[in-house]
Design goal:
By secondary structure, the chain is an alpha/beta fold. The protein is built from twelve helices and 17 strands. The relative contact order is 0.22.
């Protein structure tokens, strides 16, 4: 049987090891800081003007801070200490250049939009990840706070709250998590927060180790459906008996997790969606036989199965290379030092392979027309190459930089072959209208039919606006 709970009743004491011990599918306790949003309550809407409705949204979160200068917004005319070691290459969009180690993505730049003028003010991984995953600033900006039960909920949780019946499997799923920030901390902003544990999204861990991404969903010969139903009835009887004596929140949480587990085990469509072995081996290799690549492939399967909102953590750790420099799986985008070696030999080849495969696969199946795909990171990298003595590595890198960075958005009515926004000659600051994570949050929710000015309620019936920004309409066809 699947396990959905943790031994610790205090969410602040959940260790990374305890999270990983559950494995595969698990629902975490949530935490955070409440930030009440004022405004008029609005009625439910099925679409938002200017944003085409999507059946599913796939968010690829590049953990650690991708460098805009080595990827989406190179500056070949800048001084070497700004532009770095890599060359810029042409793309299928005339006049648009990418970094040289994105050849596949450069060859299909006419299928998506790059937004080069993303900007905010948070400069540390924990709180910036929170900002990216919730669409709102943490109360402790530029810090690495632990998850707390008063956090604002993730976008996954918000969607699950306002559209709880969406999706045949689940309204929202995170794949390849949790998001880990150095040294080994679980980042805030991934959970149900002030909404409570019921609104944690479904979590799926490493999907590259088993044929079925969630092994607990595999039917066992010794456990036919009739025996499973008998066990469910027995458990219900025990819970009813214990209910007269035990009313703790831990007991109630455990009962809810069992109910979710039985519902998943009883649905053959769920097992089908998580079975990566049904994919041709050639396609699995095209995505990349590594954690992040197979997570992207699972995201496509989940979208095809009707899951509305999926987040793929493209790399679980933001800088695991400090402890495991020979393990490609450990590398994250936080490249304070050794940036050119890490990008050239570890990060960019894999990313170019898996993200291009996702877009190509969706497009070839006709799914890109109604699937919104976003690649986002918590911030960019500084427009100055320098060695930082307080970090591991022998060659220079780039510091955190939130004043200007790039994201990619594709599908579901988004323009093809477009660049939105621009930066100055060093890639340091926006030289046009800028956008923030709050605007991207509004865009994602609008694509799912949730107006940004809609509200949800916490357990005390206080209203919170689902997003404080406005959809990025410049990314869409007129």
């Amino acid at each position: 049987m699947l396990r959905f709970c943790f031994e610790s009743s205090d969410p602040r004491k959940i260790s990374r090891q305890e999270f990983l011990r559950v494995g595969g599918l698990g629902l975490l306790t949530a935490t955070g800081w409440p930030h009440q949003v004022q405004g008029e309550l609005t009625a439910d809407h099925s679409s938002v003007s200017g944003v085409r409705r999507a059946k599913s949204v796939i968010v690829v979160f590049a953990n650690g801070g991708q460098s805009q200068l080595e990827m989406w917004d190179p500056k070949p005319a800048a001084p070497r200490e700004v532009r770095g070691e890599f060359q810029a290459i042409s793309t299928t969009v005339p006049g648009t250049l990418f970094g040289e180690h994105l050849p596949r993505l450069a060859g299909m730049a006419d299928r998506y939009t790059v937004i080069r003028s993303m900007s905010h003010a948070d400069l540390d991984h924990g709180s910036a990840a929170y900002l990216t995953l919730t669409g709102q600033y943490h109360s402790r900006i530029s810090s690495n706070p632990a998850p707390a039960a008063t956090d604002l909920p993730s976008l996954l949780s918000v969607y699950q709250r306002v559209r709880p019946e969406s999706g045949d499997i689940a309204p929202a799923i995170q794949v390849n998590g949790p998001v880990i920030v150095a040294p080994q901390d679980i980042a805030p902003g991934q959970f149900g927060g002030l909404l409570g544990r019921d609104y944690d999204p479904m979590f799926v861990g490493d999907v590259n180790t088993q044929a079925v991404a969630v092994p607990g969903l595999v039917s066992l010969p010794e456990m036919p459906a009739i025996r499973l139903r008998e066990r469910e009835r027995l458990l219900s009887a025990i819970e009813r008996t214990l209910g007269d004596f035990e009313t703790s929140s831990k007991s109630r949480d455990l009962q809810k997790q069992y109910e979710k587990a039985f519902a998943l085990l009883a649905d053959p469509r769920t097992r089908q969606a998580f079975d990566l072995s049904q994919e041709p081996e050639a396609l699995r290799r095209r995505y990349g036989r590594h954690r992040s690549g197979q997570a992207c492939l699972l995201a496509r399967r989940l979208a095809a199965a009707g899951v509305p909102l999926i987040t793929v953590v493209w790399n679980q750790q933001n800088r695991g290379q400090d402890k495991s420099p020979d393990d490609d799986e450990a590398y994250g985008w936080d490249t304070h030092n050794d940036i050119f070696d890490a990008l050239k030999n570890r990060l960019l080849p894999r990313f170019d392979q898996s993200f291009s495969a996702l877009l190509e696969d969706l497009d070839s199946r006709g799914m890109l027309a109604d699937t919104l795909v976003v690649c986002v990171t918590e911030f960019g990298r500084a427009p100055l190459v320098a060695l930082e003595p307080n970090f591991a590595g022998a060659t220079p890198g780039r510091k955190h930089w939130a004043a200007a960075y790039s994201i990619v958005i594709a599908g579901a009515g988004v323009s093809r072959g477009k660049v939105v926004g621009k930066t100055d000659r060093w890639g340091a600051y926006p030289a046009s209208e800028s956008y923030g994570p709050w605007d991207l949050a509004a865009t994602i929710l609008a694509a799912l039919g949730v107006p940004p000015d809609e509200h949800y309620y916490d357990p005390l019936q206080r209203p919170y606006r689902v997003a404080t920004g406005k959809p990025i309409l410049a990314a869409y066809d007129a």
